[in-house]
Amino acid sequence: MPQNAAMAPSKPIVQRIHESYPKLPEGERKVADVLLADPAELAVRNAIEIATQAEVSNATVTRLFRRLGYTTFDEARQEARRLRATGSPLYSGQGGRTKGDPISDLIHQETVIIESTLSRVNPLVLREIGAAIKAAPRIRTLGYRNSHFLAQYLTAQIAMMRPGVAPLLMPGQTESEGMSSLGPKDLAIVVGLRRRPEGFNRMVEAIVQRGTPLLLIADETIRGAPAHATWTLDCVVDTPQFADSYVGGLALLRMIVVAVGRALGAEGHRYMQDVEDLRDRLGELE
Question: Do 120 and 261 reside in the same domain of the chain?
Answer without folding.
Answer: yes
